[in-house]
Amino acid sequence: MFYEPLGGGRFAATPATAGPWSPDLQHGGPVSGLMGRAFERHEPVPGTRVARVTIEILSPVPVATLDVTVRVVRPGRRVAYLEGEISHEGRPVVRAGAWRIMGAPSHLEPVVHAPAPPPRPEVTPPFEQWQDLHVHGYLAAMEWRPVRGSFGEPGPGAAWARSRIPLVAGESDTPLVRALTLADSASGVGSQLDFGKWLIINTDLTVALHRDPVGEWLCMDASLDASPGGSALCGASLADSSGEFGRVLQTLLVDERPLA
């Protein structure tokens, strides 16, 4: 599991949450999933669903004990807005917002513009070639099936993925949690920048879903734009075997990696 529940909104992060830059700092995927889980469980209203989540990463999140809180800012039967926070030792490290929206009528005719996702390959690539990155945390906890241009190859890229472990011990991941746990990997799947040369860190993550995903395997198709004197922007689509169900957007800091 990524987290061990301690009760009272407190969770102990396991080594599986560690991101590629350090074994002591968490990847944004599990953090986002934990926040989404809290939004879904807070004063739920029958017939509604979390349709959009925005994560603001205030500082690196340590692989340690975290406290999660949520409150309803704008209550409503059809539309509600929630705010959440993750803190470590009393210091906020993540703030987030979510729109909870009533589900559309069942007789609504679907409107889908995106093509069907590419087939899922049968081989998971090794990560050993990434000598400068920590690959034994989140990257190893997810099962990856790259389709094109990802994991060492220039993007844009696409990959199928699923979690090998649950977000929280003793629980089954919900569709929202599965989507959020994967979504923060967009800049890794779609980047055209060399991770060995460039430090690429997102300051935020927005995930908007027009429907809930179905099944464990999800496909992400991502691309990244970057400009000298500016920053980077990564966008991605999310799909399952039935087609696209949502979008991802990240704003990223780009800087030269410090010499070892």
Automatic annotation (TrEMBL):
InterPro entries: ACOT8-like_C, Acyl-CoA_hotdog, HotDog_dom_sf, TesB_ACOT8-like_N. This is Thioesterase family protein. Pfam families: 4HBT_3, 4HBT_3C. Residues 18-100 form the Acyl-CoA thioesterase-like N-terminal HotDog domain. Residues 126-254 form the Acyl-CoA thioesterase-like C-terminal domain.
